[in-house]
Amino acid sequence: MIRHALAEGWLLLRQRGAVSVVLALALAVPISLAGVGLSLHRWLGPVAAMSGQASVVAVLLHPRLDGEQRSNWISEEAKAHPEWVITEISREDLVERLERWFPYLEELVAGGDASLPPLVEIETTEPAGVAVLEGRSEVLAVGPRSSVQQLLGRVARGLAWVLAAMSGVLLTAAVLLASVWVHLELYRHADEISIMRLVGATEPTIRGPFLVAVAIPGAVAGGLSIVGSIVTVAGLSRLSTTLGLPAVPSGFEILALQAGAGLLLPLVAAAITLARHAADEIAE
Amino acid sequence: MPRGDFERPRHRHCRRLPTQQGATPGPASPLVIRLRNLSKEYERRKILRGIDLQVDAGEFVFLTGPSGAGKTTLLRLLYAAESPSAGEVWVAGRRLDELPRAQLPLLRRKIGVIFQDFKLLRRKNVLENITFALRIHGVAPREAQRRALQVLKRLGLHHRQTALPDALSGGEQQRVAIARALAYQPRLILADEPTGNLDADLASELLSLLCDINYQGATVLVATHDHALLESLPARTLVLHHGQIHYDGMWPP
């Protein structure tokens, strides 16, 4: 049966040589792009992780608060917001932190230590949430709450998801393409299939050649997609290293996934199409 | 029964006694075909009406009747290309309407069908059409080729072995269809108008071939409305009319 499937599958391929080449290329392109997409997804991973990093927001307290009042306020806020890590800045570091967080208060800083208001730093993964302190009588001002890293991370994460989704769409397109190809071939060979059934061919005997005829362009597509993604990823890596960014990784797992997708996706699509075709024939 | 336009030699050696009615079908039964109260209808039009029939292993049977009598439908029911609307179809000890789908190919391998419309694979040449069927039946490639050439020689087609079906005449295509059905030496041969496109000599040669195969033990059921063919060979004959068997006996009497 395997010899029969190979021989007949090869015959099918020879009969439809040009279409088989087109199928191999049409499968290779989306699989290759999916591979590149997954490489970029992986490359963006560390940047995307920054979206979840904790940031620090500075809060300037009212100078009338004495030490005990400040301690009470800090413990109350820590109780109300357990996700916050609140640290009071010591007198020694105060000038340096004020210059960093509130550069527009340079006159106040120049006035000397005695006039400097107390400062606390709140470490949190949700810096925007610190805005709730604005308007409180104990609080003079809340420092900048936007985080460049977080913004960059969010953009990277979004881009990575877009690339992963695009990869999924492209792979789905590849499966549908193989399925349509098998469907057309079944339609073209419908008479032969019915004759084969009448002379006693089993379903595996009928389906085998079609699976072989799809597996060979699929394997070629897998190989071509590997070459395509290696070349593309190398180009992107050169570009990223020129810009001072890390090289785009081209992992073995992604290449193996591409080879597997090239071979298996059209096979699965063909198997489903053939099974549906057989079920339709039985129903008729 | 009217005579045909030409006389054909009589093949008197190709003769089997009709089956005794009432035998019980089953795996150990010598019955090859048993139909019990078989009916078939398409869109409320009754093609076959309550047919009861038994055919023993090794019988040679003609099935005749006017066009539209249901001969082809009856044959299609016997190789399970159709399902009955009512009744039972037993072939080689298996009830077809209850046969699991996966076992159907194995049953069909016991049946050689000579189709009225030939059903040849258009993209394969004469030799490949026959070896293909043999390969499906598990015959090794070399043996398949040897057997295909043997049967082609017998049917006078060995010189056309590389021709595609479309390059053949109707008679040649019919002979290829016959060669394919005979090549794997089935236990039951169903022939639907096998001489429809053959001249008198070839028809006689085909009948002789079917007789030989019958003599070797295969059951042969030939659907035909060629009266000359019926006259040339005394055999059990079933006359089908309006979907019912009107005559079941030896012809010529």
What's the gist of this structure?
The complex is a heterodimer of chains A (284) and B (253). By secondary structure, chain A is of the alpha+beta class.
Task: Characterise the protein shown here.
Chain A has 284 residues and is an alpha+beta fold. Chain A has two domains: 2-50 and 153-283, no CATH class; 54-146, Alpha-Beta Plaits, CATH 3.30.70. Helices cover 70% and strands 7% of the residues of chain A. Chain A is built from nine helices and four strands, in the order ααβαβααββαααα. Chain A has helices spanning 2-15, 17-49, 67-80, 91-101, 106-110, 148-188, 190-198, 203-242, 252-283; strands at 55-61, 85-88, 119-124, 139-142. Chain A has a four-stranded antiparallel sheet, sandwiched between helices. In chain A, α2 crosses α8 (203-242) and α8 packs antiparallel against α9 (252-283). The two termini of chain A are 27 Å apart. The mean pLDDT of chain A is 84. By secondary structure, chain B is of the alpha/beta class. Chain B has a domain at 32-110 and 186-251: 3-Layer(aba) Sandwich (Rossmann fold). Chain B contains seven helices and ten strands. Chain B has a six-stranded mixed sheet, sandwiched between helices. In chain B, strands 2-1-4-5 form a four-stranded antiparallel sheet, with helices on one face. The longest helix of chain B has 16 residues, at 200-215. The model of chain B is unreliable at 1-12 and 16-29 (pLDDT under 50). The chains are: A alpha+beta (284), B alpha/beta (253). The A-B interface holds A 4, 15, 191-192, 194-203, 205, 282 and B 79, 81, 101-102, 105-106, 108-109, 111, 113, 115, 119-123, 133, 135-137, 180.
Q: What percentage of the residues of chain B does DSSP assign to strands (E)?
A: 25-35%
Largest sheet of chain A: 4 strands, antiparallel
Which secondary-structure class do the elements of chain A indicate?
alpha+beta
Share of residues in helices of chain A: over 70%
Please count the helical segments of chain B.
7
Mean pLDDT of chain B: 84
SSE run of chain B: EEEHEEHEHHHEHEHEE
Q: What is the string of SSEs of chain A from the N terminus onward?
A: HHEHEHHEEHHHH
User: Strand tally of chain A, please?
Assistant: 4
Strands of chain B, count: 10
Distance between the terminal alpha carbons of chain B, to the nearest Å?
11 Å
The total tally of domains of chain A equals 2
Report how far the terminal alpha carbons of chain A are from each other. 27 Å
| Lateral arrangement of strands in the main beta sheet of chain B | 6-7-8-3-9-10
Average pLDDT metric of chain A = 84
Q: What is the molecular shape of chain B?
A: globular
Name given to the CATH architecture of the domain at 32-110 and 186-251 in chain B: 3-Layer(aba) Sandwich
Rg of chain A, Å, rounded: 32 Å
List the uncertain runs of chain A.
none
